[in-house]
Amino acid sequence: MLDWIKQFSGKLDHPLRDAKAAQDLIAELPKGVSIESLEQISHWVESVKDTPGFACDDRLAVIRLLDQAGAPHADFLFNEFFSRIHQLEKRTRSIWDVLCTYWGRLAEAYAGCVADFEHGEKGANKVVGDMPLAAARALRAANRRFKLRHLRFVRIDAAEWAPLYRLYALTELKRFDDSSVVAYAREVHTTVRAELQKIILLYLAAPHEFPPAQLELSFRVLERFAISAAWSRVPQDDCNFVFNLSAGGPPAHMPVKEAAGASRRFIGGGPALSKLAELRQLCEQNMLSEEQRFGKEFSPAQIITVIKHLQRYLSVAPPHRRYARARAAAQVSVVHGLKPICQRVTKIELGSGVALSEDMDLKAKTANIMKLVAEEVESTPETWVQKDQSEWGLGADIPPELGKWAEPGKLCGIQFNGEKFWCVGIVRRIDSDATLHCGIRIFSKRPVSVWLRVLGVGEHQADNWASSTGSFSFDYLRAIMLPDALKSHDHPVMILENKRYVPGQLCEVMMGEHSRQIKLMEFIEEGEDYVRAAFEWQQPAKG
Predict the structure, then answer these.
(1) Which residues pair with 230 in a beta bridge?
(2) What string of H, E and C letters represents the secondary structure of 327-374?
(3) I need a surface site. Which of 3, 108, 196, 435 has the fewest CB within 10 A?
(4) How far apart, in whole angstroms, are the C-alpha atoms of residue 207 and residue 107?
């Protein structure tokens, strides 16, 4: 009888039935931020989302209050998760689970408000002007959830795209997909379409190839520039990616011209790539203001590395696999870090009688000057299970309890089963489905470890300073020459210790009587403990 009376009176039987009830309940939460409070708010979001009978305006008002209440907890917990992302412990996993659940429910709740409006539910006429905001926030929450999954190398299932497309299609139908809104306070204007573009462009940029810091940076870069991407209902030269609003599934590169269709949408880097190029130029000239750096924690080198990656993958000709993969079943030995790799690969000793030609062929007076220095190693190689192999890459499963260091961008040495010498490569992708699977790109099959003596740049060369003052001490750094690596603008490539790249810097390759000078020409990418750069040989001084 009581339930019938409540129904007849029009009062919804729910503890968060309207904004006033929601404010009262939120006020009872413990002070301070905590994972428990976010779990409670997440539960409330789910309850409001799934309970029938809410008027459109009441449901949206309550969801917005819960969003506002959850934001401080979610931001704090994400920062904590990110700071301990390499610590594989229970709390890190718990934070990830709670954040994924919360942002997933929040996205569905806002999308549900838009669906209520579409169906003309009670109070729909009161929220007409709020629909662009609700849809934009739904996609923003979905984007944050996707980012979390990328950070843990969890694949995005094809079915997860359908709700996003369905929401966007509705905004197109109602003609507010391009309406300008401020999604949250102190932000620049955005649109529903721009929020979808952020999700799509990050996915197309191969986020599985980013280490966590670079992934977070790419997320922030696209937050700013995705709104400038090219977008069309028909194929265009700068819209070389396609997705289907009705069929679902992830966006994909369009290798050939595809016919227009009612539900097909085309997207590409477009003007966003030009803006990225301008930003990269400012970085290379060290003219980037503090406001443009996306956070004090990111260096110009990191920003350049990320921008080059985005330019490559969002261009009209994105990378594709050039070499066929063949199945392989073997064990491979793997080490990581520049110094342990240098201790294992072919090494040039001072005074050994070795000459390194401009094409980086080793020429020796004796037959035993190239050797592996296994007795000097800093770490023990791990044994992984190789699954496939191509000309310049391999895929391997990482056994449990191993590879805790593995993430995209990590430099590694690889020794194939039965081989004597070591290759040098980089972890390019990680998949953490049933097993942890790693894809490695091989830079060189015959790398050479050398020492470089830093000479300086131009008139500030170290030998000039030494002759004038008599007090200069030379700086030395490790490097790995990559004789068979793909050249960059016709320049050979090498790997240096991190943060040691200076454009135009001269270095001496230490080989005793056969020492040669090189000039650093081009920054390619920065990793955790290395920089990959192009160089050119300098002509020996006459006499």
Answers:
(1) 268
(2) EEEEEEEEEECHHHHHCCCEECCCCCCEEECCCCCEEECCCCCCECCH
(3) 3
(4) 21
Place of tokens 């810097």: 505
Q: CA-CA distance, 485 to 314, in Å (whole number)?
A: 24
- Determine the average pLDDT of the residues in 423-443: 88
**pTM, whole model, 2 decimals?**
0.86
SS3 503: coil
Q: Identify the CATH class of 326-444.
A: mainly beta
Q: Which of 129-138, 148-157, 204-213, 501-510 has the lowest mean pLDDT?
A: 501-510
Angstrom distance (rounded) from CA 301 to CA 283: 8
Q: What is the pLDDT of residues 96-109, one digit of tens each?
A: 999 999 999 999 99
Report, in angstroms and rounded to the nearest whole number, the Rg of the chain calculated over CA atoms: 28
6: pLDDT confidence band, cut at 50, 70 and 90? very low
What's the CATH number for 448-537? Answer: 2.30.110
What the block records as the tokens of 518 is: 């090189």
Range name among 337-341, 439-443, 464-468, 537-541 with the lowest pLDDT average? 464-468
Query: Exposed (0-12), middle (13-18) or buried (19+): which is 423, by Cβ within 10 Å?
Result: buried
